[in-house]
Amino acid sequence: MSNNIKVVCRFRPQNALEIREGGQPIVSFDDNGQSVKVESKEYPGTFTFDRIFPWTAKQNDVFEYSISPIVDDVINGYNGTVFAYGQTGSGKTFTMMGPSIDDEETKGIIPRIVDKIFASILASPSTMEYTVKVSYMEIYMEKIRDLLNPVNDNLPIHEEKNRGVYVKGLFEVYVSSIAEIHEVMRRGGNSRMVAYTNMNAESSRSHSIFVVTISQKNLLDGSVKSGKLYLVDLAGSEKVGKTGASGQTLEEAKKINKSLSALGMVINALTDGKSTHIPYRDSKLTRILQESLGGNSRTTLIINCSPSSYNDAETVGTLRFGTRAKSIKNKAKVNQELSAAELKLLLKKAKTEAMTFTQYIAALEGEVTIWRQGGTVPKTDWASMEKIQVGGGATPLSSLPGHMTQLDTSRPSTPAVALELDEREEFLKRENELTDQIAEKEAELLARQQLVDSMREELTFLKEQDSPNAVHELNDLKLQLEKVLYESKEGAITVDSLREANQELSKELEELKKTLMEIRLAQKDSNEDNKEKKKMEKMAQMMANLDPSGELSAKEAQMRETLSKFESPAGLTPEEASALRKEIAQARSLIEQHEQTIADLNNENVSLTLNRDALEMRLQTAELEYEELLDKTIADEEANSSIDVLETISELRVKLEAQYSAKRDQAQQEIEALKQEIARRNEDIQRLSSNVTDLRRGNEELKEQLERQSNHTSSGLWEGKDMTERERDMERIRKTMAQQLADFDVMKKALMRDLQNRCEKVVELEISLDETREQYNNVLRNSNNKAQQQKMAFLERNLEQLTLVQKKLVEQNSALKKEVAISERKLAARNERIANLEGLLQDAQENLTSQNHKFETQLRALRERLEQARSQKSAAVNFGRIAKPLRGGVAAVDNG
Ligand SMILES: Nc1ncnc2c1ncn2[C@@H]1O[C@H](COP(=O)(O)OP(=O)(O)OP(=O)(O)O)[C@@H](O)[C@H]1O
C-alpha cells in the first residue's frame, strides 16, 4: 500500500521583531484550509497542502488533524514519522513540544501523542500486551548525541538486514506511564540545554529526534507487532548567513547544514521521478529517517512558517519544500511477526517446497544425463515444476499469507538464493557482527585519523611557531657566547699588556731611584771635596786679610827691641817707664776687651753652629719629605694612571711649587739671618783689626820713647848711688816687661789660635751657608728642573704610554661601540622577538584561558552527564531498562 507523505502547514503569529521591523502579514488562506496565498512582491505564489493552520489554530487542532491518525497507525504496527520543518523561530518546537508539556492548552504534539498512546493502550483489549520504550537523540554537526545518556555524543549508525537502520548504543528507556515519559522528555530537554550552553551553540542548529517504539503482543495468538514513531524537530531551515550563526567556521556551517541539505536532496530525488539513487547515506539524519522518506512509514511533515513580509523569502522557501515533499510516496506496512503456529505451518510448507525442489532437481538431472549421453527426451517428458507440484502438492513460499519483516526480500542486498531459515538467521547474525566490527573499526580508524591530523597540525604549528624561534635563539646565544669569549680573551690580553707596562714602569722607577741615589752620593762626595777646598781658600783669604801674625810679630819684635833697650845700661827714664806702663795697661785693657769680644764671638759662633745644624736638619727633613712626596705622587699617579694625567701633573706642579716656595722663603730668611751674623762678625773683625792697629800705634809710640831714652842716656851723667836703684828698678821693669811680654806672647798665641779657630768657624759657617744656599739652589733646581724634569720626563713617558693605552682604549671603545650597536640591534631584535613571543604567549594564554574555560564547561557538562548517567542508571534500575508490559485496558503489569 503506497501512501503520500502528509504535509501540513502552520503559520505562527507575527513576532515582536517582525512587527518592530514593519513586517506585515502577507498570507491569506482559502476557506477549506488547504491553500495559502503569499502576497509578496518578490515571492508571490499559492501553495496547497493537506492542511493549512493559520496562527489562530490551537495545538490540539494541529494534533487532531495531522498527528492523531499516525498514533493509531503506530499502535497498529506501522512506522510513523512527524517532521517539523521551518526557519528558526517559525514555531517548530512550539508545535512539537509546546511551551510546557504539562499545560493542557499549549502542550505540543509530542505530549499529546504520548497521552494518546497510553490512552489507546488503556482502551485496547486486555488480551493485548504492550511495551513502550523511548529514546531521545539529537544530531549536531553530524554527530549523534544521546540526550538520555549524554556521555555518548557520537553514536554510530548501523544497518542490519533484519533490523534495518538503527543508532547503535542509543539508550532506550521503557516507560509505563505518561509521567515517566514526561520525565524522560524533561531530562532529554535539559541535556540539550546543557550541551548548547557548553558548546556555545544554538538549539536551532541541531535536529532532535524523539523515538517512541510500541511493541504489542496478542496474548491469544502470540502474534507480535511493533511500530516506531519518529518525532523530529529539524534545525532552522534558513541559510546560515542570515541568522549569523556567529563564531562558526565555514566547515562547521557546512556540517550544520549537511543533514538539512541532504534531506532536501533526498526529497528531490524521491520526487523528481527520474533519480534511481536516493542519497540517504549523505547525512546522519537522512540515514536514520530512511524509512520515513519513501519507505516503510506513515509520515507527516509540518512546515512552520512566518506570516510576515519580513520573512517572506524564508516562508516561500519553506512552502516550496513542503510542496516538493508532498509528492513523496511511502510504502507503509505493518511490522508483524508470525506466531508459533504460523511459523510451524510455514516450516512445514517450506519443507514440502524443498522436497519439491529436490524432486525437480533430480528430474532435471536425469534429463540432463540423457541429453548428455546423446539421447533425446520428448518434450512432453521434460521436467517441470508443475508436474512435480501436481505430483507432490507443494506450495511456493512466496504465496504464504503474511511475512516477517526480516524476510522482506525488498531490501536491496538480501541474498537471491533461497536459504533455510536457520542458515539465513545465522548468516545475518554473522553479517551483523561483521558490519558492527567494520563500523567499530571505521570509527576507530576515524578517531585515529583525527588524532593523527590534530597531532600533525600541532606539529606543524610547533614547527612554524617554536622551532624557528628556538633555532634563532640558539644561534643568538651561540653568537653571544662567542662574543663573550672573544671579549674575555681581549680583556685578558689588555690586562697582560697593562701588567707588562706596569712592570716596565716599576723597573724604570727602580733605576731612577738608583740613579738618584748615585747622583746624591756623588754630589755629597764632591760637595765634601769642594767644602774642604773652599775652607782652605777662605781661611787663607781671611788670614791674609787679617794678617794678625805679621802685625803681632812686628809688634813683638818692637817689644823685644824695647826690652833689649831696657836691658841696655842706659835704660828707660822713669817718665818713659811710666808712659810705657800706661801703654801696657791700655794694651791689657784692650786685650781684655778683645778677649771679651772673642768670648762673645765664640758664643755667637756656637749659636750659629746650632742654627746651621738645625737648618741642615730641616733641609734633610725637607728633602726626605720631598722624596716621600714625590714617591707617593708617582705611586698615586701610577695607580691612577687612567685618571686625567695632565690634570694630576699640573696639580703636582702646583703642590711642589707651593712646598718649594715655602722652603725657599724659610731658607731665605735663614740666609738673611746668617748674612746679618756674618756682617756682625765682619764688624767684630774690623773692630779687632782697629784694636790691633791701636796696639801697633802704641808700640810705635813706645819705640819712639825708647829711642828718646837712649839719646838722653848717652848725653847725661849717672850718679853712683842712684844708678844702682835705677838699675834695680830697670831690672824689675825689665823683668815685669819680660813677664808681660811672655804673657802677651802666650795671650797672643792663644788669641791667634782662637782667632784662627774663629776664622775657621766663620769660614766653615760661610761654606756651610754657601752649601746651604747651593743645596737650596740644588733643591730648587732639582725640584724645578732636574728632578722635576726627570719626573716630568718620567711622567711624560707615562703620559705617552698612557696616551698609547688611551689610544688603544679609544680603539677598543670604538670597537665596543660597534659591538654595542650590533648588540643594540640584536637587543632590539630580541625585544621585538620578546614582544612577539609575549604576543604569542598572550594569545596562547588567551587560548589556554578559553580552552580552560571550554574544558571547565565540558568538565561541568561531563559531571552533569555523569550525574545524569548515575541518576539514569538508578532510574533505569527503577524503570528505564526493564520492560514494563502494559496490558490493554489496565495499568502496567507487574513483572513479578
Ligand atoms: N503558533 C504559535 N502561536 C503562538 N506563538 C508561537 C507559535 N509558534 C511559535 N510561537 C512562538 O514563537 C517563538 C519561536 O518559536 P519556536 O521556538 O517554537 O521556534 P522554532 O522554529 O522551534 O525555533 P528554533 O529553530 O530556534 O528552535 C516562541 O516564543 C514561540 O512561543
Automatic annotation (TrEMBL):
Domain Kinesin motor: 4-328
Region (Disordered): 703-724
GO cellular component: microtubule; microtubule associated complex
Coiled-coil region: 424-458, 495-529, 577-632, 762-872
InterPro entries: Khc_C, Kinesin-like_fam, Kinesin_motor_CS, Kinesin_motor_dom, Kinesin_motor_dom_sf, P-loop_NTPase
Residues where ATP binds: G86, Q87, T88, G89, S90, G91, K92, T93
GO molecular function: ATP binding; microtubule binding; microtubule motor activity
Protein family according to the UniProt entry: Belongs to the TRAFAC class myosin-kinesin ATPase superfamily. Kinesin family.
UniProt keyword NADP, yes or no: no
Annotated Gene3D superfamilies: Kinesin motor domain (3.40.850.10)
Keywords: ATP-binding, Coiled coil, Cytoplasm, Cytoskeleton, Microtubule, Motor protein, Nucleotide-binding
TM spans (from-to): none
The name this protein goes by in its record: Kinesin-like protein
Localization terms from the record: Cytoplasm, Cytoskeleton
Main subcellular location: cytoplasm
GO biological process, one term: microtubule-based movement
